[in-house]
Amino acid sequence: MTGQLVIDPKRCVACRTCELMCSFGHHDYFNPRLACVSVFNYEYAAVTVPVMCLQCDEASCAAVCPTGALSRNADGVVVHEDAKCIVCKMCVSACPLGNIAYSPITKNVFKCDLCGGEPKCALFCPTGAITFVESDEVLAKKRAVADNFKKTLEEA
Amino acid sequence: MKVKFFATYRQIANCKDFEIEAPADVLGLLKVLCRRWPEFSNKIVAPDGESLGADAIVLVNGRHIQHLDGVRTSLANGDTVTLLPLVAGG
Amino acid sequence: MAVGNAWIGTVLRVDLTTGTWGTEPLRMKDANDFVGARGLGTKYFCDECDPNVEPLSVENKLIYMTGPLTGTAATSAGRFEVVAKAPLTGTIGAANSGGHFGPELKFAGYDGIIFEGGADHPVYLYINDDRIELRDATHLWGKDVHKTTDMLIEECGNVRVSCIGPTGERGCLFSAIMNEKNRAAGRGGLGAVMGVKNLKAVVVRGTGPVKVARPEGFLRELTKARAIIQAHPVTGTGMAAYGTQILMNILNEVGALPLCNGRGGSIFDHADEISGEKLSETYLVKNQGCFGCSIACGRVTRIPDDSPYAGFGEGPEYEAGWSFGADCQVDDLAAVCKANFICNEYGMDPITLGATIACAMELSEMGAIPESDIGFPLRFGDSDAVVRLTKMCAEGEGFGKLLELGSYRMAEHYGHAELSMSVKKQEMPAYDARAIQGIALEYATSNRGGCHVRGYMIAPEVLGLPIKTDPLVTEGKGSLLKTFQDLTALCDSVGICLFTTFGMGLPEIAGQYREAVGSDESDEDILLKGERIWNLEKRFNMAAGVEKDTLPPRLLREALPSGPAKGKVAELQTMLADYYEVRGWTSEGEPTDEKLEQLSLG
Q1: What ipTM was estimated for this complex?
Q2: Are residues C417 and C338 in the same domain?
Q3: In this complex, is the C-beta atom of C290 within 8 Å of any C-beta atom belonging to chain A?
Q4: Does the predicted TM-score (pTM) go above 0.90?
């Protein structure tokens, strides 16, 4: 996999530019309801969280798909092929994170395809709340978490 | 004389204001500030070293130095110089 | 220009008297000539409404209008305009708001809504794409804006809410129309127009698209414009970090902070206590953006529970920070925040309310208002009194009934209309017109009375955006102001936030507009539409019998006693003559037939 979207909710200002640019990137028009990324705002906590498909290594959506319309491409992205899809929406139920959805407007299911390697949500996010990082960088971050774990265990 | 900082310049100087013996002119003061807080260097003085940084606002006794003698505006003890980055609101 | 390109092509017309509604095609020629939002809403209003209509009658129409860029990813394009004849001023009332309501209306399939007549009981309009209902709002009447919004979301699901608070229901002359709780179409009292129509709220859920004429070109233009905005020190970093309140200290430094209803000196020793810097160190929880906005100047603020001013909400903006703070000599930031929270919750314009309280403070100190009228001694500097009077006005209780008329009518009641710091009965905001000559001209000529967002001369005169001019001189201010007014009319009308113009200018506005609507007009042709809008508004005001362009006598005669602008008054007459000339108007300030002809307004 070439890269991964990473979110930093502390930086999110709830402007929803990601939703707009996602829909524009996929449809050439603006409609947040067709965005693969969704921004959730918690008013009293003053927290906003953008959520999108994380391209699970064990992708439930692909596993449950009866027609093979969902599959992993060479870049490691779980992509949806319209031609093979019968719109049974099993994937919508199967995704444990709610990151694949059905649109009554397009009468189709849709999910994040990382915009072919240049995700618009990250590209246009004004604050860095969504970034697209090389997988190596993600591993480095994981390593830091592991290091922390090791340290904690050693101290215990 | 008194030097006041606002907005992010306050964070750089880590104080709201301070007293200093008046240098000859504004440019002299800016150079003193850059020596004292190197982070000011690429902000309040332009790369040529002779003019005001593009995103800096400097007031002498409440008047923008552009309407005085620019960075050559002379200073005297008793003056107040206000420094801030370009800001806006409304 | 064609339906479907930036425009939805549909306007919803609601007759509240009969409880019926229908859709009609958007008048595309007008959309082209008057751009959208402020301009187009005003055009519809002028065509349909008698200029002499009583603002607080059901004959006054109320128009919500979006712009062609509203709902797109153009720079900060979440704006919409509400237009009616303004109760406070009797001028054309056009109030602009951000948030997410405007875009949602377009997603639902409407460029705008025209409300006519009045309902015989409280109602709210429910829009869910093409499903429209006028629903009973009896249970919402009397509820504040936050409660109303929560109840409507509970009732209707995932909707955006625009509503009034109790002040709008009561006819407070500066009641606002609020959306997403804390965003306001704030000035001129348009909330009261909704109130008189028995229209409590408009809720909308939309699932459709907003298209643009040339997607590739539009992507190029918005990418370019966004990059400029994000790289600019003001729109890229400054406003996110400090919000608009960052102006408090600098306006104080240049001696232009109006103090004590304009009576006081020019330097507020405690300005730093109510500044943007202080807010960031204390009550700021986070900054927030409106729809599609990278500037994100919004302040989410919380006053801790152990404070007498405990609360949670948004703001204050600089203008409210000044009106409740410096103008009333209050240096308690928590009190300023609290007064601002109450304004949001009850739907009031904090500029007018704060300035009206400051006016009452002066009248009270003069002995012109008996203490028994207010119920307690009122002096400048009393933060408790500011919060208390804000509550009284919100509830329409006691002296609050006079406050809700605004400073002009209140001061007139006590025989001192001259001490109302207002133009055309609307309070001027946070810049002393004696210390900044161009803003004096702007206040005097603004088509909606005392206002700073009809041509923000503070940008060139104080901040140096895009060029620095001397605030103490009058030369050249007329022509500069004309450009600012026309550009602002254009900016408000395309549907993007005026704050974008701190970082970008006409090329970026026109560039995004052209690709969205599919036009090949030049920048100058597009700016001319701004001038057309300005003249349309002016013509309405003349027909409505609005008073001539002037300022309160204090600003024309009482020189500033101290500070960098010591000895200055507002030198209005010289500037007015220049201004009328560059506008192509008569020396009396009336558009000539030639000018109207040239703008196709003949």
Answers
A1: 0.97
A2: yes
A3: yes
A4: yes
